[in-house]
Amino acid sequence: MSDLDTTPSEIPCAAGPATPAVQVLPPRLVPLGGPRAMTVRRALPSRQRTLIGAWCFVDHYGPDDVAETGGMVVAPHPHTGLQTVSWLFTGEVEHRDSAGNEALVRPGELNLMTAGRGISHSENSTPAATVLHGAQLWVALPDAARDTDPGFDHYAPDAVQGPGYEARVFLGSLLGSVSPVATHTPLLGAELVLAAEAEVVVPVPPDHELGVLLDTGSLTVDGTPLQPADLGYLAPGRDALRLRAGSDGARLLLLGGPPFGEEIVMFWNFIGRDHDEIVGYRDAWQAQVAGGRDAPGRFGVVAGDQERIPAPELPNVRLRRRS
Question: Which residue of 11, 176, 295, 309 has the lowest C-beta tally within 10 Å?
């Protein structure tokens, strides 16, 4: 998904200080452009925190009635230095990218696109999608891998069941399930569905920062309550996570990874390391926009008839790296 915020701000990102408690990160509402804008709830990056492991972007949306919202219509747009992770609870979205990959995003199935040195893609809900409900996530690539070739992975994890829960592990390993999808830093990504009043103790890697995104229901994380769309952050240093659902059960995404340890600058759909890199990425994309939808360039060409989304203006200050 593109970040279509019409006034994007500079977001210098670095791993935050450890905190022993569960830090609750409420989302902010962000319309993704147009008079019938699809609105998402953005929990990361936030003023309180910019990274959880290598996870650097968490958008949560729906359930949205496509007849009212118009669904997801995101024309070709670029990315650098990151991976996009698409996860649906309800609906269907068609993905096309400039590396020639075409795929459908369906509930319970991972679509992971590696931007590397540069890629462009489009995302459009299909006629079969009457309701859209899901999450769009980004992962920052470490310096050693950020100029890698673009790529794409699809994986449909089997459900793992235990007392009071069902889990689908799409990245990393959890509860005896291991994802075969390779990542450039250690990552954890899983959907968990808890039964009403269930209490589940989940073993987790002690070196991982963790994020718990509550989708539906009611939940406490190590005793701290979350509201739907809240993202709970937990610092490294624990080997288990205690989840307790309320009377309506709960569905959540569990994200994690070791602290990233590198500074990055996010602007629009680009991740770079300094101002000049971001300017170069933007100029390269704008040159392709000016050349028309079939103009070649760093970000390639997406098959289809949609016009490319132009990049927003940069702020009138240099984008800064911060520790």
Answer: 176
